[in-house]
Amino acid sequence: YIYKQSPEIFDITRLTTKLAEDLSGNTHEWTTNNAFVMDQTSEYEGGKSGFTPEAHGTLVSIWSPSYDEGVVRPLAIVILGAPNAIGAKYNETRKIIDYVKKYVVYR
User: Fold this and answer.
1) pTM for this model (two decimals)
2) Is the predicted pLDDT of residue 21 greater than 80, yes or no?
3) What ranges in 15-104 are assigned the alpha helix state H?
């Protein structure tokens, strides 16, 4: 729903940095630690990553892989419980994308 109705949300999640001013006039800067944003991965449409002690590494992402004959169809990937190691949730997501591009045929 959000992908079609509010795509600007995903635009924000692909930013490397974001400056914003609070109500007191103080400027704050946020910098991403999302590997797909930092690597400028072309098929990555956006998403949200995080970590909690209960869920461990988490990543929700939207992709636009090219299937057979150049058909592009959005794909959502949700990673929960990834190891705490740096990059683990991104590595797991990359494995899924690579698998989809190699083995999935969309008709």
Assistant:
1) 0.84
2) yes
3) 35-38, 88-103
